[in-house]
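quick one, two chains, predict together pls
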Amino acid sequence: MLQNDNPDFDPYALLKTISQRGHCGFLGVEYHAHGDDWCELALPYNPAFAGDTSTGVMASGPIISLMDMVTSMALWLKSGKFQPQATLDLRVDYLRPANVGDKIIGHGECYRITRSIGFVRGYAHDGDPEHPIAHVVGTFMFTAVG
Amino acid sequence: MRAPYAQSMGFGSERDDEGRLVLTMAFDATKMGRPGFLQGGAIAGMLETVAFMTLSEALGDDDTPQF
């Protein structure tokens, strides 16, 4: 599902430019889908980011990075523009290990924006959204607000 | 460091004066979110790694915690 009804902010373009040079590019994060106030990004399985060689399960660091980015994207989609922000709080409930070899999908949505704070929530799964790997809830502060 | 994630991230480890484990991470483009700023997940991943290693060390080799 690809909606292009938000001409002011394009998560696909952002991911292809700025983010490609940063941590998300390093992790191999890909665009998946987006809407007015939500976004989905994908994190392909990579043994180089396993937390434990004996199991091959992905470490939670890359999943946290994915969720930080995808919830930020959701916020920029809802506000209609990119704006500099700091992660004030991002709580991650890590429910189970991701399946080894499966691509991880991060879904983020922004449910409220005030003058200086954005409120987000989301989940990560590896194929079935009804069987999530992690739930997240967080707040971002816009750093350009005087 | 055995974890592939820790190796890929280039974490270094040292000891402070009291023998406690200290993890280091070089700040470069591969750790950036917004240009010039660390990505939140990179910091979280580093903190979780050092916490896990400290716990693992406290428990000893025979009782390695599993994710």
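Helices of chain A lie at 11-16, 23-27, 60-79.
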